[in-house]
Design goal:
This protein has 859 residues and is mainly β. The chain has 12 helices and 44 strands.
Length: 859
């Protein structure tokens, strides 16, 4: 009976909001007030204004008092009445500054004492409400939208443009840049943190992107992929930070809330056991809602740059349950967004079960001369606290799209959408079909191809010259002039021509070809290489890649910058290889490569004299001489087979549009590499075996940041005929530059190698402001402590190296290639000691870029 009643209430709530109120909130100078609060009086139901001061709130039929408030301004109340379904009232509000003090010290002290008493009761009941939810199933509706708002508008420029009707429509939509995604799903949950979503309907109104904006230009010419395993992360708009409930459930009954899209550090909940150490609370009053007394508390973070919230929470009297939250995130804790706010309303399902029925996220991202305004709305309904889960519900597949999920028409959405969309969203949807027709019409595709194929000074110098045929699915491009210049090539200046040709087939097969040819003027030699690959089982990442060429190759592929310049790190290689790559079972990737190489020394080539680069002292002169001394060996032929395995334990994924998308692994990743030099096969002169095992992981420590470690060991089990080029090589260091500490050493010689066993371990820990954010004045600098260590043991030369480092880092947002890109700039003090040199101490500078697709830094 309880669940029948709950179902009836939920069905009624589907039609609960008959109308809406919208408008702008301004000050007396007609300047917009972003993130002002808009609430129905004596309720915990409301919303907030966006960066443009605009607000939109769904309201049930009847009379209401709407309360408008903003910090430092007088509160305004307005009476409205919704009289009919789908009625929208537009009401613009001006708020006046409040020059009077809000309360004296004595009153504040009393209200804070009362807030402490309430929060003590709330924390005492926290685990009861957390543990009450062991499992559930519910219907979920999610809508995510983006708007691109220019900071400075140049009306004169826009008036000077002349468009055809199609171009006017296209340009207007591009300027508005509204991305809109809607999803209807069944959500399954099982404690403590297992989710599964069955997507019944999905419509991405932005998936028909403007092909005019696509610029598939390859600046690098490495042949084939460097990783055995498929990269994690989905290729999507990086500004859409919340696309499904698995991103974050925002469960404030938990001590910590993780949302890596906006901050790598978990947020401390205002309800956490230790929340009194991080927050102060102020009692703001009470009201009666649905016959129950509700307390309004203001949440005040004690540390402005920590991962904390500020704003309001609403607590139900006697039960001490969370009724609603209206919380902002500390700006100092955000590295991608400039603002982030969440409003979340709860509903009581039984005596100890309170679950969210409405979530609304508001965020802003500064992007050059534009602000990206993001909004996400989530509705949960039809909760079932004792569901019968289908078989294999909670497996490695985190969500599944039904076969017809992408085929739902607008009539379906009109009938099943539980919220009222804003006018501009409805307009966008209404024009979607015509936009699709525009972007898929032969006339438009010809325009797209024409734009891609257009030749101008920038394409000639930088981006390259290419040709695209959208009807045949083909595309090719040659490098621009600047990318053809190689001033420090083997033997001096080399001129390099390179390009690619790709063809995508209707069945998702993909043909990829890349190649380059270069000419050295000093030695009058021509070198080049070609790669051809075919992906033909997309769900298993099955790909065959053939490579062949005659080129100068690095002996140590993971070399430092100094070693890249060194002629001792190069060899001439005539080679051909075939590589087969696939995912065997979920999480287990394999690549087998059979290669034949004719290795030739650079001795006899005319090389450039680098002595002019030396600064005069003996050390510099010695380094310069080594740079220009080729590795000496007799030419030989080699046939080698290499098998690489990589396993991500309990890898999570989902399948969308016949493509498998890998999500982040939360357990250690282990790898195995086996190399075998096969004697006599194709006149091969080598005979060796090598095996290597490695493991790596990313571990978060409660309130202390996160650690990343990597350990590897390897040995040659057979050295009957092992040449120096087949040794195991390690990455050293560059003067003044802090390299990736998980794959290199900061104070080790620029190149080491071994023909026996080795052991390597690297570790780094980012405190993410856990210490400095609590220090007054210093916390305003937004600096973060970092520390780590590394060791390398090589038996055959009795070499043991150990180093440790510590430093300060700061995150900046920069604009690169048309997008806002977070980067982390650091200064590090490094000390090291080993068996070959005396103890050393240096200062280094490093830069790391944030990978928005994987939601993580490189180290």
């Amino acid at each position: 009976m309880k669940y029948i009643l709950l179902l009836i209430i939920t069905l009624i709530s589907h039609f609960f909001y008959a109308g809406a109120i919208k408008g702008k909130i301004l000050d007396t100078n007609n300047e917009v007030l972003p993130f002002a609060s808009v609430y129905i009086k004596n309720t915990s139901y409301g919303t907030t204004s966006n960066l443009k001061g605009e607000y939109f709130l769904e309201i049930e039929k009847g009379k209401h008092t709407i309360v408008y408030s903003f910090i430092g301004f007088q509160i305004v109340e307005k009476e409205i009445e919704i009289t009919s379904a789908h009625q929208t009232i537009e009401l613009n509000i001006q708020l006046k500054e409040d020059v009077a003090l809000l309360a004296d010290v004595e009153i504040v002290a009393k209200t804070r004492d009362r807030a402490k008493i309430i929060m003590k009761e709330v924390r005492a009941k926290r685990t009861t409400y957390l543990n009450a939810i062991n499992q559930y199933a519910c219907k979920t509706y999610l809508k995510s939208s983006l708007e691109k708002e220019p900071v400075i508008k140049n009306q004169a420029d826009s008036l000077s443009l002349i468009y055809t009707p199609d171009e006017q429509q296209e340009d207007r939509l591009k300027k508005q840049n509204l991305n809109l995604i809607e999803t209807i799903s069944t959500t399954y949950f099982k404690a403590p943190n297992r989710y599964k979503e069955i997507i019944e309907a999905h419509h991405d109104y932005a998936e028909v992107d403007d092909p005019m904006g696509v610029n598939n230009i390859s600046f690098g010419m490495e042949i084939g992929e460097s990783q055995v395993a498929q990269e994690t992360g989905e290729d999507k708009n990086p500004y859409l930070i919340y696309t499904d409930i698995s991103n974050s459930d925002f469960n404030f009954y938990k001590n910590k809330i993780s949302f890596s899209a906006i901050s790598a550090k978990p947020f401390i909940s205002p309800l956490a056991n230790s929340s009194a150490l991080s927050y102060a609370y102020d009692y703001k009053g009470s009201f009666i809602e649905d016959g129950k007394k509700i307390y309004h508390l203001e949440v005040i973070p004690r540390f402005k740059n920590e991962a904390l919230f500020y704003g309001s929470i609403y607590i139900e009297d006697s039960t001490w349950a969370l009724k609603s939250v209206d919380l902002n995130v500390n700006k100092g804790a955000l590295f991608f967004c400039s603002e982030f706010k969440i409003i979340q309303n709860y509903e009581q399902l039984d005596s100890t079960a309170y679950l969210p029925v409405r979530r609304e996220l508001f965020y802003n991202i500064k992007d050059g001369d534009y602000n990206i305004i993001g909004n996400t709305r989530v509705n949960h309904s039809n909760y079932n606290l004792s569901p019968t889960f289908p078989k294999k519900t909670f497996n490695s597949e985190v969500k599944r799209f039904e076969v017809d999920a992408f085929d739902k028409d607008e009539q379906f959405w009109d009938a099943n959408r539980p919220i009222t969309l804003k006018k501009d969203e409805l307009t966008f949807i209404g024009e979607y079909d015509s936009l699709v027709s525009l972007y898929t019409s032969p006339e438009y595709l010809k325009r797209v191809d024409s734009a891609f194929n257009k030749i101008n000074i920038w394409s000639f110098l930088l981006t390259g010259i290419g040709h695209k045929n959208s009807f045949k699915g083909t595309e090719f491009r040659f490098r621009g002039l600047i990318n053809q210049i190689v001033p420090l090539g083997v033997g001096g200046y080399r001129h390099r021509l390179g390009g690619y040709f790709n063809k995508e087939f209707p069945n998702n097969y993909l043909l990829e070809t890349e190649g380059q040819i270069d000419y050295g003027f000093k030695n009058k030699d021509v070198k080049g290489k070609v790669g051809v690959g075919l992906t033909y089982v997309p769900l298993k990442f099955v790909r065959t890649f053939i490579r062949f060429g005659d080129s100068y190759e690095l002996i140590n592929q993971n070399a430092s910058f100094t070693a890249v310049l060194s002629r001792s790190n190069y060899v001439r290689s005539k080679n051909v290889s075939i590589a087969q790559r696939m995912e065997i079972i979920n999480g287990l990737y394999a690549e087998a490569t059979l290669s034949y190489q004719h290795q030739l020394s650079l001795e006899g080539l005319q090389l450039v004299d680098y002595s002019a680069l030396a600064l005069g002292d003996t050390a510099d002169q010695s380094i310069i001489e080594n740079l220009n001394t080729p590795t000496s060996f007799e030419d030989y032929k080699k046939t080698e087979i290499e098998l690489s395995l990589k396993y991500r334990f309990k890898q999570k994924y989902y399948i969308k549009n016949n493509k498998k998308v890998i999500t982040e692994a939360k357990l250690p990743i282990v790898s195995l590499k086996y190399r075998r030099g096969i004697p006599n096969m194709f006149n091969s002169e080598v005979d060796f075996e090598y095996i290597e095992v490695s493991a790596e992981d990313h571990v978060r420590l409660p309130q202390l940041g996160y650690s990343t470690w990597k350990v590897s060991t390897g040995t040659f089990t057979n050295k009957n005929n092992l040449r120096v080029l087949e040794h195991k090589y390690f990455r050293g260091s560059d003067a003044g530059l802090f390299a990736d500490p998980l794959n290199s050493f900061q104070l080790m010689g620029y190149q080491f190698d071994t023909r026996n066993e080795y052991f390597q371990a690297n570790y780094i820990h980012h405190f993410e402001g856990a210490i400095l954010n609590k220090v007054p004045l210093i916390n305003r600098l937004k600096l973060q402590l970092v520390g780590g260590a590394g060791t390398l043991l090589i038996r055959d030369i009795d070499f043991a190296h150990f180093e440790a480092f510590g430093g300060l880092e700061r995150i900046f947002n920069v604009r690169l290639f048309g997008e806002t890109q977070p980067l982390r700039l650091g200064g590090y003090f490094v000390t090291a000691d080993n068996t070959l040199d005396n103890a050393n101490f240096r200062f280094k500078v490093g830069i790391d870029f944030y990978d928005s697709s994987r939601k993580k830094w490189n180290y």
